[in-house]
Amino acid sequence: MSQRADYGFDAPAVPVGLAVGAAVSLAATVVIGLRWGWWAFIPLAYALFFGFSLVSFVYTTRRGKFVVWEGLLQLDGGERVVDLGCGRGAVLTLVARRGGRAIGVDLWRSVDQSGNDPSRTRANAAAEGVAVELITGDMRALPFATGSVDVVVSSLAIHNIPDHAGRARAIAEAARILRPGGRLIIADFRHVRAYGELLVGLGLSGVTIRDLGWRFWYGGPWARTGVVIANVDA
């Protein structure tokens, strides 16, 4: 896919921390190597770990997740799609380019994504040549009528709700607004199995959970992203 917009970095403090860790470990490797020889392999191992994690994280946030979402989104065109925690519009503009009516909901916290602001999202939509609708709101209390949405998507957002009860409420709200025959797609690197259990309990069908592979690693296989997909029976 080609990108004409800038979607920033997810969790921007993380790649900064990884870069600092790699630099400090590399400096320690040089210092220790000059004084104590082979002991330098210990900080070198840390430098390689932080360096690999940094490359993986930057690739995922700037490229990999877009490739994965290209495969996840199967739209006929014309569907009303709500993106929970849309951020700067990485998934939202993809929905719009596929012909969906794209509606993004977010609280616009920059700690979750660099430069997270509705003006940036609108600018990205304009750069991609698509129209989107943005709503400032809490995914635990969505401003949509019951059964009024065709597809609900969310990418790395629901885990930002700090408590299980709050996350359960967000999942329940997502299920509530889906019409009969609607579909839910949630990608996250935490709590995915819990989301699946909640959706089964809410009566959704075809609940499946799978790993999204190396393109969605936020630093390495220890920070894998999974997806849960569910349907509302027609």
UniProtKB/TrEMBL annotation:
Keyword vocabulary terms for this entry: Membrane, Methyltransferase, Transferase, Transmembrane, Transmembrane helix
One Pfam family cited in the UniProt record for this chain: Methyltransf_11
Molecular function GO terms recorded: methyltransferase activity
TM segment ranges: 12-32, 38-59
UniProt xrefs under Gene3D superfamilies: Vaccinia Virus protein VP39
Methyltransferase type domain residues: 82-186
Origin superkingdom: Bacteria
GO biological process: methylation
Listed InterPro entries: Methyltransf_11 (IPR013216), SAM-dependent_MTases_sf (IPR029063)
Protein's UniProt name: Class I SAM-dependent methyltransferase
Organism the protein comes from: Paractinoplanes bogorensis
